[in-house]
Amino acid sequence: MSQPAPSAPDRRLFGLCLFTLGWSVLVLQAGGFTTSIRAGMAFLDWPLSNGSVNPPGWLTEIDKFAEHSHRLAATGLGLLCVALAIAHRLRETRVAVRRAAYALVGLVVFQGLLGGLRVLLDRLNVGGDGNFKAAAFAVGHAVNAQLTLALLAFIALAHSAAWHQARPTAPRTLFRLGAVAASLVLSVIVIGAVMRQGHFTLWVASPADALFVPSIGAGLAWWVNLLHRGGALLAGASVLFFAVQLARHGFPFLRWATLVALVFLQVLLGILSLRLYDNPHVRTVHLVVGAALFSSLCAAVMLVRRSSEEPAA
Fold first, then answer.
1. CA torsion angle 185 292 137 43 (round to 10)
2. Closest CA to 227 of 190, 259, 262
3. Exposure winner among 144, 155, 253, 271, fewest CB in 10 A?
């Protein structure tokens, strides 16, 4: 099989990356919905569900449907990532991009193990009063999902025309600014995962000034909520500033406008999550849009890095 020229995008690999990226969003949505309705322990075993790939009741009971469909979709994602790695081994000449595809398989396998340990070490299986081990693995599972999606977004970017046509026009300070913004967003994601998986969420149904400073609760739960909400404002501001700098340095409209739109949409969904606290779909979409923001931001940062490099001699 002939290999594509290094300077030209491989449309087949790009298409496979985009399909896998779309599938990963479905997996994330299914997992987020499962957490939102607290259905993570609908089945006490793993990797099978009640010892079967087609357990009774999973098409009629919402908690079983949420958890089992998430497992099935995750299995499909694993197979797609293996296919992606094989395709890169056969068609991709750039060592770094090939290694990224191999690392993606590793992250997906690790993700499955984290999900399995979250189930097997739950107190419903091991007994005890606390559930720290299961919650810790659940947080790791949630954060690793975001990192997996971001890596997949980078691999897709590496096959795009924008990546191949990038020229050294961006200052290195712009890359550092984007890296700081991405780090802040990831910190908010980690705190949000702790809040969701530890069931520390404090809902607000009254004054607008309580949206970002929790008006109820105390102790650890109050601080976790405050850090998530306050951190979201700081991270959002840093992403908006980075987007403004992208525009100033001549990056195309969609590159920076997408970040701006996702920030405002994410803040709106966060507010709706507090107001409509009985609606699991809003919280799930909030999670998915957060992943889209983080992945898009990471892709933009890597493109800036590409655009700040001197051409090879």
1. 150
2. 190
3. 253
Nearest to 111 by CA among 179, 22, 46, 159: 46
| Residue 212: pLDDT over 80 | no
Spatial neighbors of 284 by CB under 8 A, at least 6 apart, are 29, 32, 33, 36
Q: 81 is written with which tokens?
A: 């990532």
Question: Which of 91, 82, 93 lies closest to 20, judged by CA?
Answer: 82
Number of Cβ within 10 Å of residue 93's Cβ equals: 12
pLDDT tens for residues 226-276? Answer: 899 999 999 999 999 999 999 999 898 988 999 999 999 999 999 898 888
Query: Cα dist. 27→47, 69, 98, 262 in Å?
Result: 16, 9, 24, 20
- Whether residue 9 contacts residue 94, with contact meaning beta carbons closer than 8 Å, is answered with no
Residue 176 CA: distances (Å) to CA of 126, 179, 238, 242: 45, 5, 12, 10
Unique residue bearing structure tokens 């709106």: 268
Which tokens sit at 300? Answer: 């933009």
